[in-house]
Amino acid sequence: MGIRELAEQAQTEIKSMYVDEVLPRYGDDNLVFVDVRDAREAEKSGTIEGAKSAPRGMIEFWFDPESPYFRDVYGDADKTYLLFCNAEWRSALCAKSLQDMGIKNVVQLFGGFPAWRDAGGPTEEKKRK
Question: Is the pTM of this model over 0.85?
């Protein structure tokens, strides 16, 4: 099975939200935007304004409270973590992996960052720290 098939399978097992559902909730402290793309990609194309970063290669470690790499920002069970990438493959795989770990408050942004940008959602440039 290739990556396309893995991502398509993950899509059937996760929840997605569409931009028109998400835009009215922008600014809601209970909805955390999480960019799963590589930092260089976000630097090149920008990101959703205020989004947190959790790259695909680290997301499980940053969400797992038992991991030495755990980040508090991802540990609130009362918040919804909205994962996005440039399409939906990486965010689908991330959401599926986190759900498999027992983390249920994750969804993906259908259409990813391009759908957000095209709908006029707030964006910002990402600069290397």
Answer: yes
